[in-house]
Design goal:
Layout: H1 3-19, H2 22-38, H3 43-49, H4 56-62, H5 72-80, H6 84-93
Length: 102
């Protein structure tokens, strides 16, 4: 497993637990919208960069209708010109306290 895969894998329990919590899911969506605004990338443009023919794939994640899954992070990061680690940290840093079961 390469370093990117390993680091993304570490986010899986955080993302999964966060997506079980509506407030956390909305926080992730809000941070995604904020990052897109700072990078001046629209939902349609991000979808185009990701090779998505339907911009709703991005829009649903931007508005919290669809949870951002751990496997989405590398794809979204590439479309935003970020590393998966940068995007993962940015999203996780915005989460309200989420307790993880050990």
């Amino acid at each position: 497993m390469n370093q990117t895969s390993t680091q993304t894998a570490k986010l899986v329990p955080v993302v999964a637990k966060a997506n079980d919590n509506e407030a956390a899911k909305q926080s992730v969506a809000e941070e995604l919208r904020s990052l897109m605004a700072r990078k001046q990338v629209t939902g349609r443009e991000l979808a185009r960069r990701l090779g998505q023919s339907d911009h709703r794939w991005v829009t649903n994640r931007m508005n919290g209708k669809t949870s951002v899954a751990a496997e989405d992070i590398p794809l979204l990061a590439a479309g935003l010109g970020m590393t998966p680690q940068e995007l993962g940290r940015a999203l996780v840093d915005q989460l309200p306290e989420v307790e993880l079961d050990d």
